[in-house]
Amino acid sequence: MYKDIIRGLTSAKGGAAAVTILMLVASVVAPAAMAAPSTGITVQTADDSIDVGETTTFEVVLENANGGVGAYGLTVSLDDASVGTITDVGLGGAPPSSFSDVSISADGSSAEIDAVGADTADSGPVTVVTVTVEGAAAGQTDLSVDVSSVGTEGGVDYAITGVSGASLTVGDGVSTPEPDPATPTPEPATPTPEPDPATPTPEPATPTPEPDPATPTPDPATPTPEPATPTPEPDPATPTPEPDPATPTPEPAPETTLHLGPSSDTVKQGKTTTYDVVVDSADGGVGGAEMAIVVGDTDVATITEVRIMGADEEEVDISEDGSRADLTYTGGDTYDSGSFSIVEVTVEGQSNGETDLSIAPAAGNGEVHLLNEEGTGYDVTGTTGATVSVHSGGGDDAEPTPEPTPEPPADGPDAFQIDLVEGEPIQQLDPDAGETYHKQDRFIVALQITEEERQGGGAGSPMTRTYQADGCEVTYSWLSFDNTTGVSEVAVSVSDAGDCEGITLSYVGYEFPDGTTSWDAEHADEQELKDSMTVTLQPGEEAVLTVDVTPEEPTAASISAPAGIGL
Predict the structure, then answer these.
(1) What one-character DSSP code corresponds to residue 455?
(2) Exposed e or buried b for every residue in 45-69, given b needs 16+ CB within 10 A?
(3) 160-164, long-range: CB within 8 Å, 24+ apart, which pairs?
(4) DSSP string over 21-37
(5) Considering all CA atoms of the chain, what is the largest pairwise distance in Å, rounded to the nearest integer?
């Protein structure tokens, strides 16, 4: 479904404008295990007869929603544009403006509509779009709907059982003339005679007799009949029908939070530092987002650059004063779960002081929008900002000179990632061919080291998750990296979560290609495998996996165990 909608959005916007549309990863499909709910679509109107110059509205209604309507692609057409023209289209479910597109033809005969990220009633009739039509000339025309796809808020396609259109009659506006008020209504020729006052009004000949109190009021001869058939009680032997198991129960929107990292940083005047926008708990990856990064005091610091990780299409608008950056991106290809960075923000120090850096809704929106790779909107329950401290770098404001850190190996990479995964290493990553750990659903955790962190001996940005497979549960105890040697270690243990017969684990180190400092799906196939280690562990066994990312050629690493961890 989402492929069709993305195709419609892309073709409608075209060129550079296409970057304003938040579309979804092209590889998305509805979950195979969920049967598609079926329903029909009808066109309804309260007024199908208007005059020339007047307007009426038609509603395209999904007859029986099960899971709401989250995305839709359709075309509404008038058979005869000389009779009526389409002048406006309203979108049901209020999808964000950059997640939708409406294109009305020049002659008003049709409107192409694509939208993602709608939020409607979960069940019952749901109005998908509202179409306004203006009468152009006397006559009659049909209004029809061509549906390319309609999907639930959980990303499941509806099976459309039928589409019924409507008709419009336009009158010429000529009506029967009202009588001229200047012409009085004629008086009757013969006046009604007045009664002669000399003739008294006759009294009634026979007075109405009063009822005899000795005669009782007779009982009604026929009693009021009782209902012939009592309302039947429900038969206890007939059970209440269970819901159809073939109809999927709509899944609630996944919840997550976002934060800026690091939580605080210090920069000199005229120098820059970077912060990451991190999704704290992904469920199905991140396929797109719409948000803003805002600086509290531009006298202290300003935003100079925004880099989005692995997007197909993106738009970034940094204000002239550097106070905020509004961003929209689509086609994200990320880890399926865990915590990871999706946006990198560069901030420049302007003058001594401290200011806040925060995550906010994009201009025109009421909330931060985040979609997973299947098009389901996240419920972003909170965001956490950061602080920026700026100093001049000399005089009273100068910070103490830090202790020198050991120089890293001369042949060390600028930046790299190290993955803990189930199964064997992938020699050459290729997202388009499905050759990534998260696409194969065997990613456990990763350590990403940027050039700055490597030079400064930082620990990098680890991602976390709970991992179970084939009845085995994998726990990793810690991650470490030595920037003087390029060696990283992780301690792992395996426990039985139900019929575990052992599990194969690999620790794999890749060098990022030049110009990238984190996962980028577009350049993933350029990542170079530097070192890997693979072991098979049974329940109750532990090991320390080690890789060295500095060798020019991949080498086999040895197993070692820190104190307190047995093999």
Answers:
(1) H
(2) beebebebeeebebbbbbeebbbbb
(3) 160/38, 160/39, 160/40, 160/41, 161/38, 161/39, 161/40, 162/40, 162/41, 163/40, 163/41, 163/42, 164/40, 164/41, 164/42, 164/43
(4) S----TT----TTSPPP
(5) 137
What values do phi and psi take at 290, rounded to 5?
-145, 115
**Span 275-293, pLDDT tens digits:** 989 888 888 888 899 999 9
Element (H, E) at 325: strand 324-330
Question: Per-residue b/e over 531-545, b at no fewer than 16 CB within 10 Å?
Answer: bbbbbebebebbbbb
Residues 6+ apart with CB under 8 A from 154: 67, 70, 248, 250, 251, 376
- Whether 457 shows a pLDDT value over 50: the answer reads no
CA dihedral 285, 290, 295, 301 (to 10 degrees): 70
**Residues contacting residue 307 through CB under 8 Å, at least 6 positions apart:** 343, 344, 345, 346
pLDDT at position 17 is: 36
Is the CB of residue 353 less than 8 Å from the CB of residue 390?
Answer: yes
How far is Cα 509 from Cα 420, in angstroms, rounded to an integer? 9
Dig out the tokens for 330 from the structure: 């689509």
CA distance 149 to 154: 14
pLDDT in tens, 486-514: 888 888 889 998 899 999 999 999 988 88
Query: pLDDT by residue (tens digit) across 91-141?
Result: 998 888 768 889 999 999 999 999 988 889 999 999 999 999 999 999 999
For residues 37 and 56, what is the distance between their CA atoms, to the nearest angstrom? 31
Helix (H) or strand (E) holding 454: helix 451-456
Cα radius of gyration rounded to whole Å, the chain:
37
What is the residue whose two structure tokens read 């999706």?
Answer: 342
Burial class of residue 154 (count of CB atoms within 10 Å of its CB; 0-12, 13-18, 19+): buried
Q: Which amino acid is at 178?
A: E
* pLDDT given for residue 451 in this prediction: 61
Per-residue pLDDT tens for 138-171?
999 999 999 999 988 877 889 999 999 999 999 9
